[in-house]
Write a structure and sequence with these properties.
213 residues, mainly alpha, Arc Repressor Mutant, subunit A, Tetracycline Repressor, domain 2, 10 helices, globular
């Protein structure tokens, strides 16, 4: 780790992640290199190795940051409402995911690559952030749907989190993908992250909520 204050280290890591995120908006994970990332920072490319050993570690740290920010948004939902119906909560949850396009894209496309080529300490840090988001969703369920028991909450989580891995490919298509579907005479779905998530979450909630007698 380079000499200097913790503030400098944090600032440089943040700069690296911002550069990576900007590149990922227009380039594929496969095509982005450490050189590309380094060229967007204010320090030398070789300095990146003081913070991350591989490109995958940078992307994993970006995914970690995305989960941390998502958890913050979920906590805001938790603190901002005293009660929510299943439909209202589904809408709030879907809105938090609308802002996390980078997170959904990384989860659906590159998770195994990132985890497989990162040091254990980096992977553990990411898993902690993932657990933080999981905990935030759990606390929302406990507050807004007190009738749900531990089993029902677990059932919802085991349905909802795997669902997240498939949202991005259905909401976002490349021009090449759309052209291929047209040639194959497959209808191109036109649904946003919100439009896909809100009804799915509401259906999951109503399935796992105890039935009123």
């Amino acid at each position: 780790m380079p000499k200097g204050s913790e503030e400098l280290t944090s600032a440089r890591k943040e700069e690296i992640l911002n550069a990576c995120a900007a590149l990922y908006e227009t380039m594929s994970f496969r095509d982005i290199t450490l050189r590309d990332i380094g060229e967007r920072t204010s320090f030398t490319r070789t300095s990146i190795y003081n913070y991350f050993q591989t490109k995958e570690e940078i992307f994993l740290a970006l995914l970690q940051r995305e989960h941390e920010r998502w958890a913050e948004d979920l906590e805001a939902v938790l603190l901002g409402h005293t009660a929510l119906s299943p439909g209202e909560f589904a809408g709030e949850l879907a809105r938090t995911l609308e802002r996390r396009g980078c997170m959904l894209k990384l989860m659906s496309m590159n998770l195994y690559d990132m985890e497989g080529n990162s040091r254990m300490e980096n992977l553990v840090a990411f898993k902690r952030a993932y657990a933080g988001a999981l905990g935030a969703v759990t606390r929302c369920l406990e507050k807004f749907f007190p009738a749900m028991g531990e089993g029902e909450i677990r059932g919802f989580l085991y349905s909802f989190f795997p669902f997240l891995f498939g949202v991005y490919p259905y909401a976002c298509h490349t021009e090449k993908q759309e052209r291929a579907m047209e040639l194959a005479r497959v209808q191109v779905p036109r649904r946003s992250v919100y439009q896909l998530t809100a009804p799915a979450v509401e259906a999951m909630l109503r399935f796992f909520l105890p039935q009123q007698s």
